[in-house]
Structures are given as structure tokens and as C-alpha cells.
Specification:
flat, mainly alpha, 2 domains, 4 helices, about 100 residues
Length: about 100
């Protein structure tokens, strides 16, 4: 997923899942950022934090899907499985 697609996904999630008002100034700003983002631009998923004591996983332990985000790599569970798993508790960021 490139940056433009990712930002569009965030926009649609805010609009349709969280029922944000599309006329709000921050939604206009987000659409302007999406429009200004070059086609095909991809920002690598780089962790802003790393806890060297933890191991990172490459594939979900539940469904086998390749893990992408930092939370996924640390927890070993993909976001799709977290979303349907009532028992999963989000961990706080390591300090």
C-alpha cells in the first residue's frame, strides 16, 4: 500500500467507520494532503521505538498473515485478528 492509498484508507475509516463529519476542517486538510501526496510514494514502515529485549514476529500466530505494523511485529498478532479477538488487550508502548 503506498502513502496515498494509506491516507485514503485513514480518511475513509474516519468518515465511514467513526462517522466523522466530512466537512470538518481536519477532513479538508487530510484530503488536501492526500491530493498533494505523489502517486506511488511509499514510506517504509520503520519503528519509532524498538525494545531490544523483545523479539519481533514476521507472521501472525493466529492466521499466518504477514505482519506490517510495529504493534503487529511486537505482539505477533495481525490487526485483523486483534479486531475480532475480544480477549486481546493492547499493550502500552515500551518506555
Amino acid at each position: 500500500m503506498n502513502d496515498k492509498q494509506f491516507l485514503g484508507w485513514i480518511h475513509d475509516r474516519l468518515l465511514y467507520v467513526y462517522k466523522e463529519n466530512g466537512y470538518m476542517d481536519y477532513m479538508h486538510k487530510l484530503r488536501a494532503i492526500i491530493e498533494a501526496t505523489p502517486e506511488g510514494q511509499t514510506t517504509p514502515n520503520v519503528a519509532s521505538y524498538k525494545d531490544k529485549r523483545r523479539t519481533t514476529m514476521e507472521h501472525c500466530v493466529k492466521c499466518g498473515r504477514e505482519l506490517i505494523t510495529d504493534y503487529e511485529h511486537i505482539s505477533g498478532i495481525c490487526c485483523a485478528c486483534m479486531a475480532v479477538d475480544d480477549e486481546y488487550k493492547w499493550e502500552d508502548e515500551p518506555e
